[in-house]
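Comment thread on ticket #2218

A.B. wrote:
> Attaching the input chain for the structure job we discussed in standup.
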Amino acid sequence: MKRKIIAAALSAFFMLGLTVNCFARQNEPLSYLSDAGSRNISVSASAAILIEADTKTVLYAKNEKEHRSIASTTKIMTALLTLEAGELDKRFTVDSEAIMVEGTSMGLKKGDIVTRRALCCGMLLPSGNDAANAAAVSVSGSIAEFSRLMNSRAEMLGMKDTNFVTPSGLDANGQYSCAYDLALLTAKAMENEDFAEICAQTKMKVSFGNPPYDRWLVNSNKLLYSYDGCIGVKTGFTDDAGRTLVSAAERDGVRLIAVTLNAPNDWQDHAKMLDYGFARVQQSDISYNCSGLSVAVVGADKDFISLKCETVSLPLCEEQRKSITARVYLPRFVYAGITAGEQIGEVRFELNGAVLATARLTAAESCAQLNDKPDFFTMLITVIRRFFSFG
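C.D. wrote:
> Ran it. Output below, let me know if you need it in another format.
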């Protein structure tokens, strides 16, 4: 039976500390303890950021909101929108004008028959500008209309320092983004199973042409070969942007996203940043101590039932683990007939007012109805008394 959960006057909190910041200050060396001892590292990029993907915790940032050209990391948005458009395996003929574009290519030619899935492989692995343009026309009818779609989605994701002009990321007047926005975008894109699967591949067999035939596409992201746990995401380069790179890596349930813009030593930057993040963030089991916590029962063989809280797992740094707060939400009473394990309420684990996770509060015991069911007036008086007993 569904029950409306309300915030009772009984609202429990626990405070485990005061510091909530996992943030390394801009331009300061990243210092941490590794298996090899204490390490200090620096980042070559003009702008950079490292976040934990689930909680969006910023672990390191350097000029993270500075407007810059982002080159082919733009294709993260293009691929995401293409995948979300559906009909991924429906074949069609590429637009002959769209594929006439400079720069990196997946090898499309006039009259080629392709699918949207193949185009996403073509833009995420060899970074095909032809693939990005062809996908844009397929989804929106024109590159200009697709750019409007890109900016609309950017606004929805909270990318406040971004403006897209081209789906490929080639330099264009008025096109810019920042490391922070790219991290937000990538965290969302990696939630898409098709996107995550494609960008994690070192190479893929893809069919296209006229008639279509199989060929291999190779990923330009060297971190997939060289960094343990790397699962994507996208490289980029133009004369204006310099070397740009977005990476994602996962170890022991912790997923990190790193972004560098205009980074001469981007592969090294990312390895250092990711090592730093994995040294700081660990998967942590969190629960609420329910000893002494109970809820009133009406019409049962007992006046109260005790509760249990399920355990949730969160990727947290030490400062966060010390600063989590918990808020308990319970009804003022429940009716008889509760079965052990049935959800009664919930605990919301919060940090800085933001809800990180929700855990179920369940009945630790069952409660049967009384054999002699009380009359309506008696039940009403009981309900009123128990309601105000929490006041």
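A.B. wrote:
> Thanks. Noting for the ticket: The chain has ten helices and 19 strands.
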